Amino acid sequence: MEIEVKSQSDNEMVFIVRDAEVPFINAIRRTAMVSVPKIAIEDVNIIRNDSAMFNEVLAHRLGLTPLVSDLDALEGMSLPEDDDWDVYDNGIMFSLNEVGPKVVYSKDLISSDSKIKPVYDTIPLVKLKEGEEINIEAVAKVGYGKEHAKWMPTTVCAYKQYPEITFNEDVEIDYDCAQACPRGILKSDRRSKKIKILDIEDCAMCKSCVRASDNGYIQVGFRPNDFIFRIETDGAMPPKEVLLKACDVLGEKADKFIRFSEEGGSK
Hints:
Gyrase A, domain 2; 4-stranded antiparallel sheet
């Protein structure tokens, strides 16, 4: 198996996996989405809320506010499988105490740990009118995406099989089929008498070009064992950390299954 990173930024990573199979790639996708630990606000104690927003809605918005959850932030924090995870104050404490008129933003959340704070300062939480006050205490804990969307480290985690475009040299060149491509990855070059492929990896395999060709000049397929994988995050974790942690979790599950089989199914 080969892996080639095509692009990488703080919140996005695109890479190509070659010589792999669909079950393996899908296992990585599912593990990255639901089994990688992330920090999010879990318990909210609303002491005072004079705003027009219901307490439940405000608590939900706090829970979905992305918090820094890189490896340094996660170190030493209890996981859901730990016995002390349910203890109310066993986490990162946040406080929010504001008086209107103003718009309360994520930057107004005060954290007990300087490493763990909202990823973005400009997320609006609630609008307060003149004289309205809000006083909240909250606790952030580590969780998994399989329990709630607020603990999902990825906003996009998807793959597609590597596209493959071929031309039938036995028939006349159909230059018009290139114009049907909605992504513009095909270019008709009548001077060199061929159709050029500008960016094969951007092909959505929609087959608009195939349907536009009357003589079957162009065919669109895919390589069954090559994949283009994309991971995007909300900024709480770098996509590379999400991928590496997903591979570690998947490896641990595989080792556990192997031990279970070798021990004859005993616990």
